[in-house]
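Quarterly update from the structural biology core.
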Amino acid sequence: MRIVSACLLGYTCRYDCKSKPHKKVIALFEKEYLTPVCPEQLGGLPTPRTPSEQQGDKIISKTGEDVTAQFTEGAQRTLNIAKAKGIEKAIMKQKSPSCGCGKIYDGTFTGTLIDGDGVTTTLLKKNGIEVITEEDL
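Predicted structure, tokenized:
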């Protein structure tokens, strides 16, 4: 059993009110029980919402709003779901400020990627949950 970024299963929960369905994730869902999560929504952010990126220890929206508390809350709720279900693995959306694994945007809103993990991925890893991206399937 795994948790998965809900947008990868076709849920319209991304900042732009779109989804990013991924064929391999959907195929896995047909064979294995996956628990979809959207940490941003779990943290109380609306859909659609202003894009956000990590800037140091904070998550800042493109309009300059500090949304760190919402991202942190969503990460904690995602971890709580994983623990409650005994989940040890996760498939998270690449490049996201919450779900990103290995690469995230650099906080300049220029599309520049840097090495790093999103808030949720960081918390999951710290708690012993293996995290991969949709591209790792």
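The longest strand covers residues 2-5.
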